[in-house]
Amino acid sequence: MATNTVRIWDPFVRIFHWLLVGAFVVAYVSEDDYLDIHTIAGYTVLTLLMLRLIWGFVGTRHARFSDFVRPPSEALDYVKESLLGRAKRYLGHNPAGGLMIVAILVSLLVTTFSGIVVLGAEEGAGPLAGVMGGVSHSVGEAMEEVHEFFANFTLGLVFVHLAGVLFESLLHRENLVRAMITGDKPALDDDSK
Ligand code: HEM
Asked: Taking residues 67-77, what's their average pLDDT?
């Protein structure tokens, strides 16, 4: 019997997601030796984040923050229910996934913003060059630590994100990665939200 599908992720969300993956990977691997490429990839991440923030308010139903940002207690309950194998299926992001997405977006914002501060302080370049040009070298170095910490923190979140995607796909016997490519998911059943 053919399963009905519904459109969940609009083209913006899908293109945003896969461009973000690419830009983050390029920024991460280029950081030591290729400052030009690193900077372009970082600005790409920041531009994508800005657009996603706007889309979170004006975008389609499941792209909106109001659809998936839930209190941490709800996310925790969802994790518990998942581990017991009885969590409800969501068409959009589940409460734990939603919290993880907020964490990734915030961590990326801190990473990119601290990167721009470092660029201004250490290289005298970028939009903050005028402001950061006069600060001491030790301030620049401290910001570099912050920048590196949050880049690695984001990477850690991404690994948890991937584990969550795999776990949820197995739990509800659906291919969430394919849905992030095609935009479509099998339609609701009685246990879904
Ligand atoms: C740098 C790496 C990654 C980052 C920063 C990232 C970030 C995100 C973000 C922000 C979202 C929310 C999308 C939105 O609502 O706009 C998301 C969702 C998603 N991501 Fe990733 N992601 C990464 C890697 C991956 C990879 C490698 C895969 C799969 C191979 C993946 C699979 C998914 C899926 C399936 C969803 C939808 C989850 C759901 O169904 O609720 N992600 N990711």
From this structure: 97
Please, are residues 88 and 81 in contact by the beta-carbon 8 Å criterion? yes
pTM of the complete model: 0.93
Is the pLDDT at 110 greater than 60? The verdict is yes
The preferred substitution site among 21, 60, 66 for testing ligand 1, maximizing ligand atoms within 8 Å of CB, is 21
CA distance 154 to 20: 12
Position 49 pLDDT exceeds 60: yes
Q: Which residue, judged by its Cα, is nearest atom 42 of ligand 1?
A: 162
Bridge partner residues of 186 (DSSP): 5
Report the CATH number at residue 49. Answer: 1.20.950.20
Task: Please give the distance, rounded to the nearest whole angstrom, from the Cα atom of residue 104 to the centre of ligand 1.
Answer: 9
In a domain, 192, yes or no: no
Closest ligand 1 atom number to CA of residue 176: 35
Q: How many domains does the chain have?
A: 1
